[in-house]
């Protein structure tokens, strides 16, 4: 019964609302539901509603630290390979 009470407190929104929140397409939202990243319920024969709580959890789980993501990488010293000899054909020797 505790699950039912929690579900009743959760708000369910349409695919369009979630797509707008995430700035993506409704198809991508559907794919997230299929892979289990978002919790959804079926309302009627075709209508699907997505848990607002699962959207918030998805956002929190997928947040990035800009310093980690956009920090300039430390370039390692690259060793240059010795140049390979060019292939020469006989006509070049004439």
Protein architecture, described:
48% of the residues lie in helices and 12% in strands. It has six helices and three strands; from the N terminus they run αβααββααα. Helix 2 crosses helix 3. It has 94 residues and is mainly alpha-helical. The chain has a domain at 1-63: Arc Repressor Mutant, subunit A (Orthogonal Bundle).
A few lines on this structure:
The chain has 94 residues and is mainly α. 48% of the residues lie in helices and 12% in strands.
SSE order: HEHHEEHHH
Give the terminus-to-terminus CA distance: 92 Å
* Main sheet characteristics: 3 strands, antiparallel
> Spans with pLDDT under 50 lasting ≥5 residues?
none
* CATH class identity of the domain at 1-63: Mainly Alpha
CATH architectural type of the domain at 1-63? Orthogonal Bundle
- β-strand percent reads 5-15%
Number of strands: 3
**Strand sequence of the main sheet, in spatial order?**
1-3-2
- Shape label: elongated
Count of helix runs: 6
| Average pLDDT number | 83
Name the features.
Arc Repressor Mutant, subunit A; 94 residues; 48% helix; mainly alpha
Chain-wise SSE layout:
Blueprint: H1 2-9, E1 12-13, H2 15-22, H3 26-35, E2 40-43, E3 47-51, H4 52-61, H5 66-70, H6 90-93
Antiparallel strand pairs: 1-3, 2-3
Helix pairs in contact: 2-3
């Amino acid at each position: 019964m505790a699950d039912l009470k929690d579900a009743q407190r959760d708000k369910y929104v349409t695919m369009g609302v979630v797509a707008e929140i995430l700035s993506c397409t409704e198809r991508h939202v559907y794919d997230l539901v299929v892979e289990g990243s978002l919790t959804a319920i079926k309302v009627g024969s075709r209508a699907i509603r997505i848990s607002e709580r699962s959207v918030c959890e998805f956002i929190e789980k997928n947040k990035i630290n800009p310093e980690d993501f956009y920090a300039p990488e430390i370039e390692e010293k690259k060793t240059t390979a010795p140049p390979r000899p060019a292939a020469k054909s006989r006509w070049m020797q004439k």
